Amino acid sequence: MVEIDLTGKTYLVTGGSQGLGAATVRRLHAAGGSVFINYFPDESQANRQRAEELAGELGSRAVPVPADVTDREQVDAMFAAIRQHGYGLHGLVNNAAVIRDRTLRKMTDDEWEAVIRTNLTGVFRVCRAAAEVLADGGRIVSLASISAVVGFFGQANYASAKAGVIALTKVLSKELASRRITVNAVAPGVVLTDMGASIPEAVRGEMLKNIPLGCFGEPDDIANAILFLCSDLAKYVSGQTLHVNGGWWG
Predict the structure, then answer these.
(1) Which of 3, 19, 136, 223 has a CA between 20 and 30 Å from the CA of residue 190?
(2) 10-242: what fold?
(3) DSSP per residue over the chain, as a string?
């Protein structure tokens, strides 16, 4: 039997308090890893509460850390906090993302920039900071999207940002290869998270017709792919985008 064992390794998951992020945190932790659960420090403290509840559920080896990934100072402070815990860092999962769907004619500059700032620039900033502390042989996995290759109606900002994540993944896989750090992306199809549920029912019905397996993804389907890319089983996989979409595209 081949098992994935992450004992003794530490990971940071951005946007880890809910949705795909929380599913990924649970998977990495279940495999024996220690996990820093990044959350956006919103005024309502809802994200903090979710992160603390998740850490409490998992018990040891799970630590919440706040940071807005679009803010360089907060990102630097997050990595300083990680170092203060005395852990090395063996993997990064870039999951934090926002969505502001609107057609091109109606999309505002703020809606464009908010999505690019979080979903692409945020990934760049976190990767840049992580590269300074990641152990040799570490892992970076970033969440792209089927939207990056299909281009869904009303997602000029989101699709552009996620396409940028795929390009950034290819570049970083070359720049960090000398340290045996692998850099990959996972591109989910439609997944049954809060974000997926925000898609109008009629639109989801049309999307479902394009999926050969006949169902939408579950968060664990994506988390399992991330777990593989974080493991020693994927030590020769780098610069790739793994499409997890039920056969819709790829």
Answers:
(1) 3
(2) Rossmann fold (3.40.50)
(3) ------TT-EEEETTTTSHHHHHHHHHHHHTT-EEEEEE---TT-HHHHHHHHHHHHH-TTEEEEE--TT-HHHHHHHHHHHHHTT--EEEEEE-------B-TTT--HHHHHHHHIIIIIHHHHHHHHHHTTEEEEEEEEEE--THHHH--TTBHHHHHHHHHHHHHHHHHHHHTGGGT-EEEEEEE-SBSSHHHHTS-HHHHHHHHTT-TTSSPBPHHHHHHHHHHHHSGGGTT--S-EEEESTTS--
